[in-house]
Amino acid sequence: MSRDLATILTGVVLGTLARYWMLRRDFRQYPSYPHAVVTHLALGFVAATLGAVAVPA
Fold it and tell me: What angle do CA 12, 8, 22 make, to 5 degrees?
């Protein structure tokens, strides 16, 4: 596994977990229906992926 790939995977995992933690911690941001939870986590995954790819580049 190359060093860049490990950096990208670490960024994606930590970014997605940070989004999940934020949803659980801040009750004002927590959506009230299951579809919104999936939407928030998917958006967090996309943002983490873009950030993890852009930083090493």
Answer: 20
pLDDT tens string 5-49: 888 888 888 888 888 888 877 666 666 777 778 888 888 888 888
Q: Where are the alpha helices (DSSP H) in the chain?
A: 3-25, 34-54
- Identify whether the C-beta of residue 11 lies closer than 8 Å to the C-beta of residue 57: no
Q: Which residues, 6 or more positions from 21, have their beta carbon under 8 angstroms from its beta carbon?
A: none
| Per-domain residue ranges of the chain | 3-54
18 CB-near residues (< 8 Å, 6+ apart) = 44, 48
